[in-house]
Design brief:
This protein is mainly α and 149 residues long. It has five helices and no strands. The longest helix is centred in the middle third of the chain and has 91 residues. The protein is rod-shaped and about 145 Å long. It starts with a helix and ends with a helix.
Length: 149
């Protein structure tokens, strides 16, 4: 409630105690003429002070309880954020490890492919240097043309 933000808690307790004192005074001090003549309005006023004081004291106490719960939950959230940060570091480390493994495997594959390319170049050089009769090459080319039809 907006009123709780502006007033200190002790004011509500003071209103409650003032209402109780006024109510007791209207009952006990019957022999004082001013109090006796205004007894009924003073009793209504004292009941109003007691009611307002009790209600606002209860609201202040309830607000204090909720603020304590909020602080507890904020502490839990801070703890959860710290744990999440640790987990994020672990996840990043796992990703870096996997990236390194993939890079190493990629380098191995590149070396293997380079090796194959070198071997193919040797095969190509061998084929270029290999004397095949022209009739054999023509027969091979005609066989390919026949299978395409």
């Amino acid at each position: 409630m907006w009123l709780l933000a502006f007033l200190p808690d002790w004011i509500f307790y003071a209103i409650f105690i003032f209402g109780l004192g006024l109510f007791v005074a209207t009952i006990v001090l019957k022999f004082i003429p001013i109090i006796y003549m205004k007894r009924i309005p003073l009793q209504f006023a004292s009941i109003a002070f007691i009611s307002i004081g009790a209600f606002m004291s209860g609201m202040a106490t309830n607000e204090m309880i909720w603020q304590m719960r909020v602080k507890e939950l904020e502490a839990k959230v801070a703890q959860a954020e710290a744990e999440a940060a640790k987990k994020n570091v672990e996840i990043v480390e796992k990703i870096v490890y996997k990236d390194r493994v993939v890079k190493e495997k990629g380098e191995e594959i590149v070396k293997y492919i380079d090796k194959i390319v070198v071997e193919k170049e040797e095969v190509v050089k061998f084929v270029e240097n290999c004397p095949l009769p022209k009739e054999f090459i023509d027969a091979h080319n005609q066989a390919v043309k026949i299978n395409k039809k």
